[in-house]
Write a structure and sequence with these properties.
about 130 residues, alpha+beta
């Protein structure tokens, strides 16, 4: 009788590999947690970029130099209403004059409840020049 030695790793040829039920549950929990955070954070950034694009569209207005600060705020508010921007109004934007032209100060906080007293906060504080 002759004994042959099998190479290492071939001893369990019929064994299947895969994820266990506990591993699958942990993976589903991790994916659900990431999806929950994404559902709260993505709309905040979409709203922020909507505000930025509104200000950029105002910057491209040809009659911007002749408009008063109140006229600029009214034009911005109309675009906010069309774009469903609800966490800031045009009155919250401060328009000031500098040597190089007018500047809009965009300062606001967007706070969303994540779960059980945990919040996600987006703080924006920037100055945007109005001269194109």
């Amino acid at each position: 009788m002759m004994w042959t030695r099998q190479p290492a790793g071939r001893e369990r040829v019929g064994r299947q590999g895969g994820i266990t039920v506990i591993g699958m549950l942990l993976l589903i929990i991790a994916i659900a947690f990431v999806a929950l955070i994404a559902m709260k954070v993505v709309p905040m950034y979409i709203q922020y970029f909507s505000i930025k694009s509104t200000i950029e569209s105002i910057r491209k207005e040809p009659q911007l130099a002749q408009m008063s600060a109140q006229d600029i705020q009214n034009a911005i508010q109309k675009r906010f209403d069309i774009g469903y921007v609800d966490n800031i109004t045009a009155r919250d934007l401060k328009i000031r004059n500098e040597r190089n032209g007018r500047v809009i100060d965009l300062v606001y906080d967007d706070e969303r409840d994540l779960f059980y007293g945990l919040f996600v906060v987006l703080k924006v504080k920037e100055s945007i020049p109005l001269n194109p």
